[in-house]
């Protein structure tokens, strides 16, 4: 049987370690001429695009010049509908103050692979009251919900559009909505517009509205004020799953402090910050909306996220984006993977690992599981195998907004690389799909083992996963990881946990904050559910 040994983390840095729709409104079709984004099938990270924010400004200016007025209406960009699946959810884009509906120009192709994209166009001369604009969006939402009640509807908006999405969600709590809000305009009274900065100077610097008549901008700002007053008394009724994207650079509206206010009020809300990105965020060449949605596990095609069927393996460009922050480990650590061939020969690399699944990798957790990303990444780099890691529920959901645990964004990289909640049902589905599955039977307890428990297996006495693996004929590959505990023992145990930022909370503190608290039991006791015989 093939076996794998991971030679541990940070060893090179420490030489003492040896191993280491259909509405009544008009639908428009629009396609940019002459240029298009390169397509990567299933990609959730942006490849280099030939389009830019300057191109958006050019198209918006042309649209303003030829806009014949009329009521607000939906249009579907032609480049969005080439390769999406039949059960893709609907995405409704609600524009910012400019109202053009082209704010997602840089993201059309990638979003079109996984969504049915509709964009709302509000002509610059339109003066539709807020109540009628809300009715328009609401009628579309209800019509599409009645057509496909089991699929969610995404409302994506920036500044003005984000506030409009919140108003619609507050009035439709019975519909399964997912809100993706960039720099939501819910704090106008705290913005630069109320200060001494001249409005004209702001407009001149704001590329997305510089071509819009001042009268139109003032009309939209008055509508924002109306929406703010409405949300002040109705925001708590919003039950939609909400993702707030913050760049911290909105010229017109305050968003840095407002994101935390929204997070504390909304029932199901997560925040992802992209400090340093441009304004508007959706027109930043370095930002990818599809990636942000997937990394936060906000992409789903049913009533809840299915981490098996909704998962899309990372493309080469996606993988590079995820792995780049961890490349320093290759330089500073030089981790080594060893595997065993069928003839018993031990070789360097992963050639001994079965190519066809189902395969179950079973091994030990080293301290803090710092080796997990390099370990899973090596399978992609060397064998082009996506390993589905069975992970603790804290990687996917938080039942409380306080406690000692890291923010959910800390675990985004693991979910992108294929982590799934560790349940019998998920393991059954993965084996049925003939996947490569990675399991750490010791779980969090082993990952946060105590002093003196280095390399000690803290596993259940009766590992049920073996029976399931045998049922599907899965190849079981046991492995051991060594090196990291030696480093931490040598460098960290000599100091208090609080002296090391990553370890600022002790294992027992973190344990008490888990969704399913860890038993502080004697590892040598059978009552604690751990293996007492260590080999």
UniProtKB/TrEMBL annotation:
Region feature Disordered, mapped onto this chain: 24-49
PANTHER family (alphabetical): ESTERASE_LIPASE_THIOESTERASE FAMILY PROTEIN (PTHR22753:SF24), TRANSMEMBRANE PROTEIN 68 (PTHR22753)
Protein name: Serine aminopeptidase S33 domain-containing protein
Cellular component aspect of the GO annotation: membrane
Coiled-coil stretches: none
Domain of life: Eukaryota
